[in-house]
Amino acid sequence: MSNAPDDAQNADNQTQLALRRTFVDRLRYSRSKNPSTATTFDRFVAVSLAVRDRLVERWIETQRTYYEQDTKRAYYLSAEYLLGRTLRSNLKALAIYDDYKKVLAEIGIDLDEVLEQEPDAGLGNGGLGRLAACFLESLATLSLPAIGYGIRYEFGIFEQAIRDGYQVERADEWLKFGNPWEFARPEYTVAVGFGGQTLHVPTEDGFRVLWKPATKVTGVPYDTPVAGYRCNTVNTLRLWAARADQEFDFQLFNAGDYLRAVEEKNASEVISKVLYPNDSFEIGRELRLKQEYFFVACSIHDIVHRYLKQHATFASFSEKVAIQLNDTHPAIAIAELMRVLVDEHNVEWEEAFKQTVGAFGYTNHTLLPEALERWPAATFARLLPRHLELIQEINRRFLREVTTHFPHSPELVSRMSIISDGAEREVRMAHLAVVGSHSVNGVAQLHSDLVQARLLKDFHDLWPERFNNKTNGVTPRRWILECNSQLSNLLTERLGTDSWVTNLEALKQLEPSVEDAEFRTSLRTIKMENKLELAKLIFKLTKLRVDPQSMFDVQIKRLHEYKRQHLAALHAVTLYLRAKRGEAVQPRTLIFGAKAAPGYRRAKLIIKLIHSIADIINGDKRQSAVRIVFMPNYRVSLAERIIPAADLSEQISTAGMEASGTGNMKLAMNGALTIGTLDGANIEIREAVGEENFFLFGLTAEEVLEKQRQRLTGRAALKNDPLLEEALKLIREGFFCPEEPDLFHQLVDDLLGYDQYLVLADFAEYAQKQAEVEREFRNTDEWTRKAGYNIVRMGRFSSDRTIREYAEGIWGVSPCAIASPRDPSLVPNAHPDLV
Ligand code: D6G
């Protein structure tokens, strides 16, 4: 007779007993509290530390295995990681979420309340940083040997408050109460030089270059375990914090200049102080270049050091090391690796360059010219004199290759050069990244096509084989399983297994279910419950009551003119005008969430515009069809609340300008229908979910280019559209902002003049499509069917698929299974550091 159920019950009890014990221990010994004196924050820290303890065994085992098997590793270099919260993910990854919920409930603690205590780790601006976070999670879940490198910003993305409709920024003090996930590793610090000069020292067979930096900064690594979902792999995210270099301090201290010593300490530590809050556009500040070089130099040192633990020469470097550049921010790594190989380890130039190109891959994230990093050569000469020399040498050799391939084309040579000529010479980081990498990829098919045909056409002509596409993805763990538990349960129940969590394509098997009325009823019920939850949150945050029966029309993303939040706002005004005239307008709640770069005035004005319109429309008792909500301080944890409750997903960027988008994916896989342009990943999403389940409108990327060439005015679009004309007039005349009637003059005049982002040119089609959306939404069951097809056909947009493509197509990195962690007292010391 089997007593399997009893055994399972016993195991559960044991696990729960152990969880309870570690929780109480952590509360007592790490917080010095007992259950009755502990605050909710203490409880959060205690649970996190208890969970971290569980991860550590797997973490050590993972790192040991990588060394033992000498696996090739992928190194992801990114200036941003928008991690959000971690506790829930780790509980789910370790399959102890339900146990913990039960254990805590028994002692009167609500786990969900505890989870709410965790501050978001907001070390990123938007899509690029969140992508890096999804990638880390997928890398671990796929058991791929990988390390993420970045900066441990003391202040992440600013906190957004709204005052009188204006954005106000506050410093994000996410580390104020400590961070339970990280381990400081002062034993692995790295010295990073800046400035100074280079010395050419003669040797027997030529000369050697020595860089004598003027100042040094110390990089201290902080390691965070990154758990794979339900597997033993735990990878590392290593973030570098800047500390003053002690040697330099001592010199000044000894000279008696205490104050200057402290000042210099501050100057060093400012490097990792704050994330630059600019999404998709650059400001060429010297401190930013320092940040980039700082974390890159630390990471390259770490990578080379790890490689040399097991290899005597650099001959197999690129067989063991793959380094991915997340945009150009870390592109200086190419020059830094050359410096380390050539200057510090005496590797021949050709061999060093071969290994460098073999190791590096570059991901481009934008076509916007203002976002392409360029640094004045003079800045480089001052901060990184040796790197400028190395870049010049890389460039000299590269241009020779260009001339051989394309003789008699001096213009081409000057176009492709890494260093631009002209009065102010600049280092073009994208060119450096392409020349120093064996792979260059865009992040959606259209974007990759445009990179090849427009942005880097010359390079594509020279090296077509280097170029490829890797369409972005998002992790279904965070973006379905964790944020939408009811939908997750339904999917698992219908499928008979939760295999979809690690194989999102499995949802395809649910296509027949979408045709099942009962399934659709469940989908509808879940959406309604999620909307009710969001409505409560909206009331809590904004004091506005919204009707969960209305259509939740969501636009959440950074505020940028190319993303066209003002297009949606303008449309809201026309809906309002129609509602006031007594037309039957489908009740709709527009939900915006967006931060604007603090120096981007037009973006901030659009936030004010949305608030002004919202004030008047929400306050007008003569209509109740249109409600506008602006959710302040949009961030990962807020996205997790909004996305499951969305009916309509606004992906309305000017075609050719959004490289991919990933919010579009999260919304679609949670059953929102998209209204969108043929831009970025929208195109592929539409192909996947079926054109009948997607609301398409607008100019194509080609047409946009053509229109921009013609420099047509926005005014041309007003013909035959009196409603749009009236809406613009009201905005311009200050109807929505009587206290500052001139506020939106310029904004409207610019739209009517050279409408760079073609807001007015696309308006008519947008409004028409929105009318179709309204009609479809009223047909509730049909709408749910479309939503269902969106959910079950989004499998391709899992970041697992994307990461597999990177691993196979660019890195040559294979999965490495990790055994269950052994009892620590039995594990022999095999770590190379310790032998
Ligand atoms: C992480 C995990 C830990 C490991 C340490 C150093 O903190 O188990 O020992 O990284 O790893 P290496 O830098 O020596 O590879």
Give a written overview of the molecule.
The chain is of the alpha/beta class. The chain has 33 helices and 24 strands. Strands 1, 4, 7, 8, 11, 12, 13, 14, 17 and 18 form a 10-stranded mixed β-sheet that branches. Helix 13 (377-383) packs across helix 14 and helix 20 runs antiparallel to helix 22 (517-542). It starts with a helix and ends in a 24-residue tail after the last helix. 49% of the residues are buried. Residues 830-835 have low confidence and may be disordered. Residues 59-60, 63, 183, 223, 236, 306, 833 line the site of 2-deoxy-6-O-phosphono-alpha-D-glucopyranose (D6G). The site of 2-deoxy-6-O-phosphono-alpha-D-glucopyranose has 8 residues, from helix 2.
Q: What's the overall geometry?
A: globular
Extended strand count: 24
Distance between the termini: 50 Å
Structural class call reads alpha/beta
In the predicted model, the low-confidence regions spanning at least 5 consecutive residues are: 830-835
Give the radius of gyration.
28 Å
How much helix is in the residues?
40-55%
Bound molecules: 2-deoxy-6-O-phosphono-alpha-D-glucopyranose
Strand content: 5-15%
Instruction: Output mean pLDDT.
Output: 95
Count of helical regions: 33
The biggest beta sheet reads: 10 strands, mixed
